């Protein structure tokens, strides 16, 4: 059997030999969708002589097996953003998050797309980002009648479009992939992989949780008929008086989009909400957002599933891979689910969770907040924290000055400009000054907050647009 192996480069320098007798563990976590991939390296700091890496140091990580002098599998490039030193036992923990491969995709842009196709949009975005375009199958021919990209980055715009069309759009290294199935994207760029198949006797342990299986028989979706200039409803699935009908919340722009969304939803609902975790001997080819086919586990578990999360861990016990897969579904919107379970994550992970959750909750009703939801900016941010599994530094207060004071006391770092998931504080020149709070979006270019004039979380604007209402300087805080 081949021996597990790893290789780590720091700013282009191979440091594998320097850390070989100090490495306690190397963990790579590959997340689906917008959550940041990350790496954690735990080192023995017994003599306090380890060089302390600077924030922003680039780490290239390879993990796999030593075979015929070949390098292990490239896992990604990460930027150091978190460091923990301790004496019980003496150790250094280095945490880093995935490095953006196309910074130009985060630039805010305003553009209208009219009478075009998904392929043409992707081709334009790939070209100006310096990426090679990879379109799999016929997905590029999907017609786009009209889309407005207003003060929105290319990556945020593509992500929004992909979710609505039920397809995958993802930049990987130097390529932009557009495909109907995430499994069409190879784990190693340029290398086509077969469908992953795992048999029951290959795993050391597994667990499956199945909820709401067969609870729905039909799905309804709304769309706007451009010819008749009115909203219409379509339904997929057979009528069954004993089962529920699921209604899509989104208003789709065309019947075709509504049909695709309803078909996809019904397929996932018929399987129920399935989550499967399994561990096995290390396999570096497993990546999130792909698909895995399980065989010889048992009924309801066997089948092909969406991979949500993959953790690769190398330590004194060898190399293990843990996979979380199941139905793709949507995030649970039950706010009561958040109990601070993510409080121990790194600052960058918390930022990623906050910006993603804020964007998911855009438009939710805040009528239960202060003044019938019209003075609920902190209240709305509290709900985002709760759904993201994070505890607010200011407890349950709904007062902006309390929130800012608590951020400072908690050790949150005030940063010079907007960054994904940062807390934005606005004030005007009044006496006393009026204050407002929001969360920076995942593209780093805009802020989401509760509107002061209506009971919904609807305001999405650039910092400069906010300053039309709040003329004072904007303060941004990164959670500790």
Question: What does this 3D model show about the protein?
Answer:
This is Phage late control gene D protein GPD. Residues 375-444 form the Peptidase C51 domain. It comes from Synechococcus elongatus (strain ATCC 33912 / PCC 7942 / FACHB-805) (Anacystis nidulans R2). Residues 328-351 are annotated as: Disordered. By secondary structure, the chain is α+β, with helices and mostly antiparallel strands. It has 5 domains: 4-101, Phage tail proteins - horseshoe like beta roll fold; 103-180, Phage tail protein beta-alpha-beta fold, CATH 3.55.50.10; 195-211 and 273-326, Beta Barrel (Elongation Factor Tu (Ef-tu), domain 3); 216-271, no CATH class; 347-478, endopeptidase domain like (from Nostoc punctiforme) (endopeptidase fold (from Nostoc punctiforme), Alpha-Beta Complex). Helix content is 18%, strand content 40%. The chain is built from 8 helices and 27 strands. It has helices at residues 16-19, 118-128, 154-165, 255-271, 347-360, 377-387, 400-410, 463-466, and strands spanning 3-10, 13-14, 23-31, 38-44, 58-66, 73-87, 90-98, 108-117, 132-135, 143-153, 168-172, 175-179, 196-199, 203-211, 216-225, 230-236, 244-252, 273-281, 291-295, 303-315, 318-326, 413-415, 423-427, 435-440, 447-449, 459-461, 475-478. Strands 1, 2, 3, 4, 5, 6, 7, 13, 14, 18, 19, 20 and 21 form a 13-stranded mixed β-sheet that branches. A hairpin with a 2-residue loop joins β11 (168-172) and β12 (175-179).
